[in-house]
Amino acid sequence: MTTEKTRAYAAVDIGGTKVAAGIVETDGTIVYRTRVPMVTTEGPDVAFRCVKDALQNAIAHAGVRELVAIGVSAAGPLDPHTGVVLNPPNMPCWRNFPLGELVAKGFELPVTVENDANAAGLAEATWGAGKGFRNVFYATVGTGLGTGLVLDGKIYNGRTGLAPEAGHITIDYRGPLCGCGKRGCIEALASGTGIAKRARAAVAAGRGNSMMLKLADGDETAITTEIVAGAWRAGDAEAAEVLHETMELLTVWLGCIIDTLEPDVIVFGGGVGELMSEWFPQISELLPKWCINQRCGEIPLKLAHYNADAGIAGAAALCAAQGAHAMVSVDD
Ligand SMILES: [Zn+2]
Hints:
The protein has 332 residues and is α/β, with parallel strands linked by helices. It folds into two domains: 7-116, ATPase, nucleotide binding domain (Nucleotidyltransferase, domain 5, 2-Layer Sandwich); 129-303, Nucleotidyltransferase, domain 5. It has eleven helices and twelve strands. The protein has helices spanning 43-60, 99-107, 116-126, 186-190, 192-205, 211-215, 225-233, 237-261, 271-276, 280-286, 310-331; strands at 7-14, 18-25, 30-37, 66-74, 78-79, 84-85, 111-115, 135-141, 145-151, 154-155, 265-269, 301-303. Helix 3 (116-126) crosses helix 11, helix 5 (192-205) crosses helix 8 and helix 7 (225-233) crosses helix 8. It is globular and about 65 Å long. The relative contact order is 0.15. Zinc ion binds at residues 168, 178, 180, 182, 185, 187-188.
């Protein structure tokens, strides 16, 4: 009796604090997931050991599935053509580190490396909320704001692989300083960090009877985006104003995105993305004011399909895209 093996991908997602790995079938179904802490303070080898451990654990749980490739999603900047991690601010362990080559040597499988937002965008375009749309713009909004662009099923990387960093588009050149060094980036204004900062400023300027302040036990500096969301859900007008302003900021930004790219769909992921998805109708309504493209309101705004699993799904989607390339070259 023979057992027909199902083809599957090993996927690993490397961040500044954890490494997630998993086994993903070719239709995007995640059948196993694991995670280990990422150690970024003890040099390149110790950090790579974390990646190896997570991958080995996942591969040991592949069961009867035949693994055909490994996808690696990592915090950028990195060079997707060579698989070299350049100089990620949250991973000081790696400088010009040949991650792709080492994973390929260690596991003897084809490897594709991409930055996490591009990979997550590809997963949405391949299997998720962007499936069936030709050109997909993806934004993951959490602590920061990462973006990915998938054109005709392929990640758009730019000249050297560093595009798109649309989270660092400045929409107010006198705005707050961003972690990247510029002022008024949409990330500095509308990410979780940016929302919390604006909420603290609103509370500081207020009369001290704010619900947000109460939820933060009277400590203004402890106000987070979760607290803003909680106060908004409980009917607090001040929190509603902070989120209304977030909606306006995102709309101004999306107007620029649509006027540059006119994508077929815009997909939002991440915790703040999920929160702001409740404001999608208001964004669509306000968009024509901030977009020269008067058909901008027709572009669907969608919540991502993969959320906590965006990293693993993204890494696996890289393998699926490579598979398509390989088949083309075999036929040639
Ligand atoms: Zn920035």
